[in-house]
Amino acid sequence: MRIPAHSVCTAIRDDIVSGVFERGSRLTEELLARRYGVSRVPVREALRTLESEGFVVTRRHAGACVAEPTELEAADLLEVRTLLEPLGAARAAQRRTEAHLKVLRGLVRLGQDRARRGEGDDLRSLGGWFHETLAQASGSPGLIALLTQLRHKIDWMYAVEPPARPVDSWAEHGAIVDAVARGDAQRARALAAHHAERAAAAHRPRRRPGAPGAGRVRTSQPSVNSAGVRN
């Protein structure tokens, strides 16, 4: 059975974001095909996609390598997200469905409940799902793709400090959903802009590992053929 290139692409991207493949390290088709249990064809297609997304670069005499973004490029990502997320919220206020609202309200209830209880372990994941659903509610495939790519890159380049008062952060999420539910695009945009600016201030650049053995790869990753693939 031929494994879709997008599944291989997701697996490689996840390994880049999580630091399995360090910045600047080589990505050979043979190594990747063996790691994920696939042929070189989907690996080659996946590398082309990841190069277009900025995660991979092709270097003379070295081939495909993990990209090494500059500090300026990393800073630009946060600025772009503070511009696009408010646009997504405004469009969501105009295009959201009842299904989107149901999911958003459920996530806010979960987030607020866990924040009040001091159960912070899952709050970042819940926040990610919230913003992903809000982007989906915009009804704009191009905007959804951009925000998804930004989220992956920011996770790759930044560590995030948890908010000092998670209850306040989830109150902001709730206010955004209320504006989206009312169809108030202007208020949804303003609230999302404020929230994005506060979130950006909590991001700290990840340090590039400098220990000996840089570029080595862990071998515990399940193959793409297994049930553990993340899509």
TrEMBL record:
Pfam families, A to Z: FCD, GntR
Keyword DNA-binding assigned? yes
Task: Please provide the record's keywords in A-Z order.
Answer: DNA-binding, Transcription, Transcription regulation
**Gene3D superfamilies (UniProt xref):** GntR ligand-binding domain-like, Winged helix-like DNA-binding domain superfamily/Winged helix DNA-binding domain
SUPFAM superfamilies documented for this protein = GntR ligand-binding domain-like, Winged helix' DNA-binding domain
Cite the HTH gntR-type domain residue spans from the record: 2-69
Residue ranges with Polar residues bias: 219-231
Q: Where is this region: Disordered?
A: 191-231
PANTHER family to which the protein is assigned, alphabetical: GLUCONATE OPERON TRANSCRIPTIONAL REPRESSOR, TRANSCRIPTIONAL REGULATOR, GNTR FAMILY
**Name by which UniProt lists this protein:** GntR family transcriptional regulator
Give the species.
Streptomyces sanglieri
